[in-house]
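Tokens in:
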């Protein structure tokens, strides 16, 4: 488990270093995930330690939402005064995510055309 966490944190740290070093507008953890994804593709998948460590993290994922919930409670007065823009952004982003996911699935499930045929 410790080696898996170390591996994940090293990728996050490398993403942070690249993002800050090159002054990129992309968050470091996102770059770290991209680096991890590329490494997993090149390696042919996760190793045993990373796979079991990730499963343990996913089993306790709800604990990672506690800080976010606490932040909402600390700033509840702001949330209550700006509820309409928050609600609209949640609804619009959810609808956009569903639409993009549906389009991506439609493209992925489209039958492949035989050579010489038009799709």
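Residues out:
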């Amino acid at each position: 488990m410790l080696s898996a966490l170390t591996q994940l944190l090293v990728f996050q740290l490398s993403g942070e270093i690249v993002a800050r070093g090159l002054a990129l507008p992309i968050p470091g953890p996102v770059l770290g995930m991209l680096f991890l994804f590329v490494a997993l593709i090149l390696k042919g998948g996760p190793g045993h330690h990373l796979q079991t460590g990730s499963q343990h993290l996913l089993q306790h994922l709800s604990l990672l939402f506690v800080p976010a919930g606490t932040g909402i409670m600390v700033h509840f007065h702001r949330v209550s005064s700006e509820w309409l823009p928050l609600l609209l952004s949640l609804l619009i982003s959810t609808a956009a995510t569903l639409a993009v996911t549906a389009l991506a699935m439609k493209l992925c499930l489209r039958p492949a055309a035989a050579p010489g045929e038009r799709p």
